Structure prediction request, 264 residues.
Amino acid sequence: MALRAGVAGGVLSTIAVAGSANAATAAEPVTETIEMPTLTAALTSKVALSAEATQQAADAYQYRAEQQSAAEKAVKDAKKAHKAAEKKAEAAAKKKAEERAAAAERAARSAERTDLSGVQTAAATSSSSGSSASAPSQDVPAPAPASGSVASVVSFLQAQVGDAYVMGGTGPNSWDCSGLVQAAFKQVGVDLPRTSQEQSTAGTQVGTSNLQVGDILYWGGQGSAYHTGVYIGDGKYLDAANPSKGVVIQDLSGYPADGAVRVL
Prediction:
């Protein structure tokens, strides 16, 4: 029994010593092996990486926003440029149309002058072959005696104000200059030649300083006029002006005539 007691005591002592040693060993990591600096550096590195990624994302977002803004501005600028180009093209087309109309009018007037030259040549030939000098040319009829009133002529002309100008037009809603003058005097029984050149020689030359209502005004030389109108008083005249104006009343001071003839 004594031996057993001794053995048992020895075993218990050994266990107690081992337990104390194990307890000391278990507590040692808590008091001596925590590496806070190493953990703090890793965390700092992770935080730094996260901040850098966030900044990169912000930079990328800002870059995309700037790209979108630039694209929107480019679209607006392109629209403005397109509208400006359209306006410029419209203005150029309008100008070109006006130039074509003016060129056509000049060509027609030139053709009228050529026709008149042929008429004058024929008249001269007829005269040299023994025809009476006082006999009128068949192509340029002598003015008929007045059988109507100036008031009727002016009334007819005023009724056409606003009608269109068309080269070669003789009515009823579109006219050229000589076509309108011819139609107006036809209302009172006066048969005038068709062209401006012929009309400038159809009556008595009265000049422009002694005008009366109903006198036919012409621009250009006598026998080579390129435009005609009718004096209506108060320094004004009525004519089929051009494609852009049509039939209008105008102030003679703005476009003085070169001559005038009287048939009434």
The two ends are 176 Å apart (CA to CA).
